[in-house]
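Tokens in:
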């Protein structure tokens, strides 16, 4: 059971670090900016498309390409929850004050989720609104929240982002450094995007089973796996990362 006092202490530490608050606002701003940019770019592509390309045009996928950029920021937010304490040297006093390491980690994970979820909801919804408004303003097809597939994205997209924040938290606890953890998370999350030059069988394997890509495809309805299985790939991966982080926190000195 999570101690309310420990959770309040975690919030105090989180809110007192300027970079975490700035990053939370940046996720919101970047989501809106890239939604608008990709919406306008997609509208330009639609204007010059052939008749067949116009029939294949997917307003949701085209407008929400910024999710692959915003995911880097939400993961970095999770990293900072852990790495900031190692960087400032406050992890040892925190462990001494709480007493039980599992309780401290549970509080950090809960606080990360409670912060990441509303930030993710705001970011995903703003990206959708900005992208579809840009498409509509330029005469391209656009979608409304009630259209097929949209509600699934708006409800489950923030859950994916929250899981990625917990992935960042686990990396921060495992690597104990902001730069190293952010670099690893960035490389890991962008690998599916960068895999286009790999052999076809490897590219298909990555696009189907890589944790963040599997979850995004489940949310968009394009996964070759059953949606529950595809989403479960990310859930299981994050769970394993958190268990590994817990084992390290429990067995190593702060």
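Residues out:
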């Amino acid at each position: 059971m999570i101690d309310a006092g420990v959770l309040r202490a975690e919030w105090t530490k989180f809110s007192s670090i300027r970079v975490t608050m700035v990053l939370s606002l940046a996720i919101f701003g970047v989501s809106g900016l890239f939604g608008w940019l990709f919406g306008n770019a997609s509208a330009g592509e639609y204007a010059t498309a052939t008749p067949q390309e116009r029939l294949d045009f997917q307003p949701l996928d085209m407008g929400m390409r910024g999710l692959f950029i915003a995911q880097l920021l939400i993961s970095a937010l999770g990293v900072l929850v852990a790495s900031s304490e190692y960087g400032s040297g406050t992890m040892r006093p925190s462990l001494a004050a709480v007493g039980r390491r599992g309780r401290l980690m549970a509080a950090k994970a809960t606080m990360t989720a409670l912060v990441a979820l509303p930030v993710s909801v705001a970011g995903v919804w703003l990206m959708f609104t900005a992208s579809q408004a840009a498409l509509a303003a330029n005469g391209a097809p656009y979608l409304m929240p009630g259209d097929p597939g949209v509600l699934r994205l708006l409800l489950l997209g923030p859950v994916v982002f929250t899981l990625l924040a917990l992935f960042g938290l686990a990396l921060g606890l495992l690597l104990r450094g902001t730069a190293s953890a952010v670099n690893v998370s960035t490389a890991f999350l962008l690998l599916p995007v960068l895999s286009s030059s790999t052999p076809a069988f490897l590219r298909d394997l990555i696009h189907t089973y890589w944790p963040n890509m599997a979850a995004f495809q489940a949310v968009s309805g394009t996964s070759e796996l059953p949606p529950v299985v595809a989403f479960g790939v990310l859930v299981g991966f994050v769970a394993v990362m958190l268990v590994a982080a817990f084992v390290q926190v429990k067995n190593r000195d702060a």
